[in-house]
Amino acid sequence: MQSVYPNHTSLHIEPSYYDNGVPVFKPTMHEFRDFYNFNKAINKYGMESGIVKVIPPTQWVSRVQKCYTESNLGQVSIQNPIVQSINTNAPGIYQSQNIERYKKYSIFQWREMAKTRQPPRRKQRSDKPEVGHGHAKRIPFYNINTSEYTDERCKELETNYWRSLSYSEPMYGADTMGTVFDKSITVWNVAHLPNLLDLMEEKLPGVNQAYLYAGLWKASFAWHLEDQDLYSINYLHFGAPKQWYSIPQSQHKEFYALMVDLFRDEFKQCREFLRHKTFMVSPAYLEKHGIKVNHTIHREGEFMITYPYGYHAGFNYDYNLAESVNFALDDWFEFGKRTKKCECINDSVGINVKHLWEKYYGTKYETAKEEEEGRGNRFSSDSDGSIEVVKVEKIQRKCRKRKQDHVDPANTRRPHKQPEIIPRECELCPNTLQQTKYSHSSLFELLEADVNGATPRTARRVHKICASMFPHQLKCNCKTNTVHGLDNITKNQKKLRCGVCRQSNMGACFQCSYEKCTRAFHGTCGLVDGVQYDFNSGEAFCKFHCQSSTSLEFRVGMYVQFLFNHRVYFGQLVSLGEGDVEIEVYPSAKDIIEIPMTSIINVV
């Protein structure tokens, strides 16, 4: 399979020029034709700057524009766009919260809505309308007049953006499944790019399946790296430009350290907090603290490519439509081996590096790793960690037996200190909630377990909701915030496998109270699978056997289960509207979703 992606070392490509630190390439059609090897040839430049711009040949752009037919664009469906509520932590430091709108737009409706979300007019319009010969340039039915977005105008709007970022709530049609390219585009078709992710058996939206991004004025993408530290490519089909920023790869550690210092609480909750894509810091602030910021204006008909460890961010100047996907070159294996993923987001991406390696190189991963260790270890032992979804067994080397010297035990020091075992937050479930806002809820209050022989250091604690699921074994004392009888939990209850987190022997699970139903859950896990709780009786019914709630009364602050995109979620009501509600989603409480009241299925 390695031969499918041969390296043409003869392909030598240099940037046509640099735009504020960003390499810009203007390849010939011959250079442009081979996506994989073109990117191999320019890889060293992107690894330095974090991002590059590629301006494709005009004949290729003309072919792509033929895809913009009314029937093709009519299939673009922008579902559940996000409204970005952006708060100012300090001058130049912002944090956004994404509120999903339970609505759907066509690209034509999106274009009409853009008229109500226009950027501010020019302060001084010195240029007069030009009087020319012939006809004015015709604007396609799907586009807007982009001629006003000169470099000077964009600079003016960029200044306005950072001065007024928190005074509006931009809307962004992000992460929309689909593509605008048709199958006739065989070169640089974002939906079908030849790369290592083709070897994956599963399809992951946005990773190896293209996403569409419908922009409006101020719609932003915060500082982040790609999932699994992959490469990414973004093609701006039409519309207003995007503003891009990037951090040189040589400063990615300094940038991360500064962001940790600025968002200390979020870092304590999740070391991969920048993958949440909610933290924004202005270029002026970063440069004031010694971080260089590369920047460029991304215009229609151009590509932007991002690189591993290349932190990037940006925003949209007005209505536009872009298409994006991740990809990987064989250089990525070194990054993939030591990348980490966010553990507090349920759908964070994980890739089986071992499986991809074996498919690409045609050799066993363990053997290849052993050979690399003997040659200086390309996958260095001082890496930041390994991917959680793949556990590569340690290679057992055969060594010559040596005669053991006599060793005096009294003079022998212990080689390594045993790692401290950090106790779980709750004895009955694997979930950690005390670093979230849900720790203040009575549902997730931690009760001290009354266990014989326990000391303050070894005291065991239990979430109140977890304790409530074992009424025959546990007795709760609300006055003293204690729970009695933890040792009464049976071995069988501990062995049950949770239907949500899929773990057994991690605390204990209760079973659905419906006769003969064997589905089991941890107390805090069942909330996101539609389990109906009755705390008075201690009974709980799975979503297949729960009783329908005919009359539900809602108030701000209550906890509810609801349906969204055919999945069950749990969260807290934060606002009530006419027929709609806004809910802060459990467990991270980082996203707010707007849904119809009819989507609420249970009150907890």
From TrEMBL:
This protein's record includes keyword Nucleotide-binding: no
UniProt keyword annotations, A-Z: Metal-binding, Zinc, Zinc-finger
Reaction catalysis annotation: N(6),N(6),N(6)-trimethyl-L-lysyl(9)-[histone H3] + 2 2-oxoglutarate + 2 O2 = N(6)-methyl-L-lysyl(9)-[histone H3] + 2 formaldehyde + 2 succinate + 2 CO2
Domain called JmjN: residue spans: 22-63
Region Disordered, annotated ranges: 114-135
Pfam family, one: JmjN
EC numbers for this chain: 1.14.11.66
Keyword Metal-binding recorded: yes
UniProt domain JmjC: residue ranges: 182-344
Residue stretches making up the PHD-type domain: 423-546
InterPro entries, per the entry: EPHD, JmjC_dom, JmjN, Znf_PHD, Znf_RING/FYVE/PHD
Protein name, UniProt field: [histone H3]-trimethyl-L-lysine(9) demethylase
Organism: Candida dubliniensis (strain CD36 / ATCC MYA-646 / CBS 7987 / NCPF 3949 / NRRL Y-17841) (Yeast)
Record lineage: Eukaryota, Fungi, Dikarya, Ascomycota, Saccharomycotina
